[in-house]
Structures are given as structure tokens and as C-alpha cells.
Amino acid sequence: MRTIKPNVLKLVSTKNWRKLRLFLEHKDALTIAVLIAEVSKINKIIVIRSLSRKRAKTVFKMLSRSDQQDVIEGLSQNSQKLSRLLNDIEPDDRTAFFEDLAPDIVSQLLQKLSPEERKITVQLLGYPKDSIGRLMTPEFVAIKEDFSVAQAFEHIRKFGQDSETLNIIYVIDQDWKLIDDLSIKDLILAGPEERVVDLIDHRFVFLNALDDQEKAIQVFKDYDREALPVLNEEGVLIGIVTFDDILDVIEEESTEDFHKFGSIQNASKNPLKERILILYKNRIVWLVLLVFMNVFSGAALASFEDVIQQVVSLVFFLPLLIDSGGNAGSQSATLMIRYLALGEIQLTDWYKLIGRELMISLLLGLTMAASVAAVASFRAPEVIVVVCTAMVLNVMLGSLIGMLLPFIFTKLKIDPATASAPLVTSLSDICGVLIYFSIASKYFGF
Fold first, then answer.
1. Phi, psi of 296 (to 5 degrees)
2. Is the Cα torsion angle 322, 323, 324, 327 positive or negative in sign?
3. What is the pLDDT of residues 109-127, one digit of tens each?
4. pLDDT one-digit tens code per residue, 245-257
5. Cα dihedral across residues 43, 44, 46, 52: positive or negative
6. Which residues have C-beta within 8 Å of that of residue 347, sequence separation ≥ 6?
7. Which candidate among 68, 122, 138, 284 keeps its CA 20 to 30 Å from the CA of 97?
8. pLDDT at res. 1
9. Judging by DSSP bridges, how do beta strands 237-242 and 227-231 pair with one another?
């Protein structure tokens, strides 16, 4: 990569377009995609225009959303080039790109598509956001159950050129209802005169176009498939979803959950290219809300002013105690969110986990109390009992908060990742202050 960029820029500066095309022709698609991400907007366009139609389509798929938008904007001056690229892109990739654009821009780009591709794109965009329908592609090969193996291969050769994958061939009836799926291996090993109907067992896994994309992730994980058929409510085969599309969804879902856990709204995919004001808006909402939540911690402290004045050494251990509760809660929330996402626990399992969480947090609290007792024995021996008791209770309560919040959010049909670390920490802080100074008040008789 160190050599390709200078060479390309040199060829561009000398306007040696023929040599540039030949030079790029011998580079793999990923190398060209990385190059495009590193050069200026005008050079991105020059590189894309120097590629063949097939290579341009492949490279475009590998680009980030921001680079894709730069390419489309740059090609808008050449209607023919833009139309050709948009029509060449696979329907599912085109739909994913259109999802991130403003409606008026999508309308303009739709006019660049052929009537057939426009119909497909409008159909896919008509499915709910984050549904499997948005993810699927209608480019697949289906055969009839009454075909012979020889007829099946003839059909595949005729219609398989534009198929997303040929590893799986789908068997349908006269009404396009899915009967079964066959691996290409099954067909290759069968005799030419054998009938497709004799090869099928009517056992297949499918997705519903209206289901959420997260369900597709789970199904792919459970059945370890390269591709899955997508059916409508009547059982008609309308598309397929391939594993590479699912990998993209997994990345997006993981990134979204990561941002939510950090209390970040709609985080930009490329902070170097995003406007400062957008980045500010994405982060400020939750931070302001958490500021108001932490006001309760201050109010709790103010109510124990007499205790603090009489036993000043209590203040030394305050950050340690409330941080310990928040940290334990964040750990618990992280684990619960992960277990829920993987399907290892269900919403109805919450009550089964309370006893286990109490036992685990008790052991954690006692261990941490022993550690803080060692510190207190040198710094302030008179508060050892208070600090150790508060440590155990804070860790237990923080762990319970962290465990229960994901279940509560899931029950309310809110993404459990919203039970973010800052939210868990803020709630644990408020409770931690109340517990700590309430114990101190009772112990010292205030």
C-alpha cells in the first residue's frame, strides 16, 4: 500500500489515464478500496472511473458509507457513469446504501435506475427498517421439483449468472412456494436422470421478510448456513440472505450496542469526516441527563452534613465505595446484555438469576471489604465497621441494579444496551451515598 498511492497520484498528476487503468487493473479490489479511503474526493472519482464496470461494483461494496457517498456525489456530473454503477450494484448492497441517504437524494438516484432495478429497490425499501426484507436480495436460482438433475443444471447455467450464490439451490412449486433447498453438492453427486423431487426431504430453514434482522443473526448462528431463503407471509420465496450480509449486520449491531453502553446517540462511523456539531449532539443528551441524575447524589450528601462534620474520615472512603458499587453494576449489566443478545438467557429467567447474583455479589463484596479494611486500619480504624458494611451492601445493590436493568428495558421493548455503564453507575452512586451515610449515622448515633 505504501507504493500504490504515490504511483497513482503521479499518474493522475500527469493525466496518464491509460497507464492508470492498466496499473489499477493488476491490483486487487481491497487494495483499491483502501487507496480510495486515503485520497482526496476528486481522486476517489478518478480511481473509480478508471475501473471496469465489474471491478467498480466490487470496489464500491468495500468502501465505507462516507466514501460511497463521495463517489456517488462525484459521479453525479456524469449521468451515464452514475446510472451504470447504481444499476450494477447488487440490490441488497444498493438498499443498504440508500438507507443512509436523505429521501430527496434517494428519489433522485432512483431515477437513474432501470425500470427493473428501480422496482426491486422500491420493493426492498418498502420493508420496515432493520427488517430482513431490507437485507435480502432477489438474485437467486430456484428450480422446480419435477426437474431432472440434467434440467436443473441447464436452468442454473441459464439463470445463475447474476445469482448472489450458487452454493444453495432452492426448490419451488408452481406458485413459487418454497419446498426445500439443495446444496450444489447434492446435485453434482446425483445422476443426470434422477429427479429433483427424489433428492429433497422437505426439511429447510427460512426467514420471514418482516422479522427483525437480529433474528436472522440467531438463525445463521444456530444452523451454520451460508445463505437462507426469505419467505413472505404466504410462504412464497422472495429472496435470500447470505452470510456476508449477516456479518455486516453483526458489526452494525455490535457498534450500536457499544455506543449505547457508552451513552452515545447515533455515533458517527467516521469521526474524522463528521461535523463537530453532529459529534457534540450525539454525546450531549445522555451526559446532561446524567448530570441531573447525579444531583440526587449531591442532595443525599447534603442531608448527611452533620455526620460528615463529625467524622471527616468518612469522606476519604466515599469515592472508593460508590465507585466499587458502580463498577460491580457495570460488570453485571455487561454480562446480562451479552447473555440476552446471544439468547443464552430469556426474559423470564430474571428471577432465577437473582439468587445467584446475590451470592456472587456477596462474595465479591466480602472480598472487597477485606481489602478496604486493610486500608482503613492504617487511615481511619474508627470507620472500619461502617466502611466494610457499606462496601458489601453497595456491591450487592450495584450488582442487582446492573442485572435487572437490562431485563426491565427488554420488557419495555427498549434495547437492553440502553442500560449503559454511565446509567448503572449513576444509580449505584445515589444508592451508595444513601447506604454509606445511613450506616454511619446509625453506627455513630447521629
1. -65, -35
2. positive
3. 999 999 999 999 998 998 9
4. 888 777 666 666 5
5. positive
6. 340, 407, 410, 411
7. 284
8. 46
9. antiparallel
Q: Can you name the residues that pair with 230 across neighbouring β-strands?
A: 207, 239
pLDDT tens digits for 15-50?
888 999 999 988 888 899 989 988 888 999 999 999
Q: What is the pLDDT of residue 181?
A: 93
105: CB partners within 8 A, 6+ apart: none
Q: To the nearest 10°, report the CA torsion of 325, 331, 265, 108.
A: -170
Q: Which CATH number fits domain 142-242: 2.130.10.10, 3.10.580.10, 2.30.30.40, 3.40.50.300?
A: 3.10.580.10
Residue whose grid cell is 431485563: 407
Pairwise CA distance, residues 269 & 115, whole Å: 32
C-alpha pair distances (Å), 155 with each of 109, 147, 150, 321: 33, 9, 9, 71
- Residues near 239 by Cβ (< 8 Å), separated by ≥ 6? 133, 136, 137, 138, 140, 209, 229, 230
Question: Rounded to whole angstroms, how far apart are CA atoms 274 and 294?
Answer: 30
Phi and psi at 76, nearest 5°, equal -65, -20
**Burial class for 161, CB neighbours closer than 10 Å (0-12, 13-18, 19+):** exposed
pLDDT at 177: 93
CATH 1.25.60.10 domain position(s) in the chain: 4-126
What is the number of other CB atoms lying within 10 angstroms of the CB of residue 201? 7
**Block residue for cell numbers 448515633:** 445
Contact (Cβ atoms closer than 8 angstroms) between residue 228 and residue 248: no
- Which residue shows C-alpha cell 426431504? 201
Question: Are 386 and 320 contacting, i.e. CB atoms less than 8 angstroms apart?
Answer: no
* Cβ(176)–Cβ(142) below 8 Å: yes
Taking the C-alpha atoms of residue 59 and residue 334, their distance in angstroms, rounded to an integer, is 37
When the candidates are 3.40.50.300, 1.10.10.60, 1.10.357.20, 3.30.300.30, the CATH number that belongs to 285-444 is 1.10.357.20
In a 3-state reduction of DSSP, which class is residue 182? strand
Q: Which of 187, 173, 164, 185 is nearest to 143 (CA)?
A: 173
Q: Which residue has the cell 450500536?
A: 256
Is the CB of residue 400 less than 8 Å from the CB of residue 333? no
Give the global pTM.
Answer: 0.60
Q: CATH topology for 4-126? A: MgtE N-terminal fold (1.25.60)
Listed residue (109, 52, 57, 59) closest to 79, CA to CA: 109
CA-closest candidate to residue 316, choices 386, 376, 394, 397:
376
pLDDT at 444: 85
Residue 370 CA to its chain's centroid (Å): 41
Q: Which residues pair with 172 in a beta bridge?
A: 144, 178
Average the pLDDT over 302-319 and give the result. 84
